[in-house]
Specification:
By secondary structure, the chain is an alpha+beta fold. The chain has six helices and six strands; from the N terminus they run E-E-E-E-H-E-E-H-H-H-H-H. It folds into two domains: 94 residues, no CATH class; 80 residues, no CATH class. 43% of the residues lie in helices and 23% in strands.
Length: 182
């Protein structure tokens, strides 16, 4: 199994010039995890450069040599850079500073808040669905409880009337809305 590093910016293959937007590596825990620049990585290297192999899919498809050297720059257990040139990797390691770390930490915290918010919204919809099913199975004579809860948390009719409401809830929460964007 591989871990995947999202390359932003993409890396240009030195052989064919194709852009690769991700890199698979076995240099971390091999748990099919995803990393990007600024991610804390589980590596035996606390600070330094790990030499890895870069695989170009365009070269492979064209029948050319598809493997090249790639350098993973690790700074205080944080993935600081991914470079094709050893000298550039050395320079990035020397020039990475605490301000970079603070920026990566801010990005990580923003992303964490984003996903926590999405999780809370999904759980709210699932709880509303559960209450809807309970109220449907156990109607109260005057419906007071149902009216009370529906004021605070109700699902749209397109979800309640869908053939598979759970699938509709998941699809509804899978969409990115402008306030969900990082």
């Amino acid at each position: 199994m591989f871990d995947t590093i999202t390359l932003d910016p993409a890396i240009r293959c030195p052989e064919c010039g194709a852009l690769e937007t991700s890199h698979q590596t076995k240099e971390f825990e091999c748990l099919m995890s995803y990393y990007r620049i600024g991610s804390v990585v589980p590596s035996p290297c606390h600070s330094g450069i790990i030499r890895d192999r870069f695989w170009c899919s365009a070269c492979h498809d064209a029948g050319r040599e598809a493997e090249h050297l790639l350098y993973l720059v690790i700074w205080h257990s944080v993935l600081a850079a991914v470079e094709l040139d050893a000298d550039e990797a050395e320079r990035k390691l020397r020039e990475t500073d605490r301000l970079d770390l603070i920026g990566w930490l801010a990005d990580s915290q923003r992303e964490s808040r984003h996903w926590q918010g999405k999780f809370r919204k999904l759980m709210s919809s699932l709880n509303a669905w559960q209450r809807h099913l309970h109220d449907k199975a156990n109607p109260e004579p005057d419906g007071a409880r149902s009216r009370f809860w529906s004021r605070f948390s109700s699902l749209p009719d397109e979800i309640l009337n869908a053939p598979d409401p759970l699938d509709a809830i998941i699809k509804f929460h899978s969409k990115e809305s402008p306030e969900d964007e990082l």
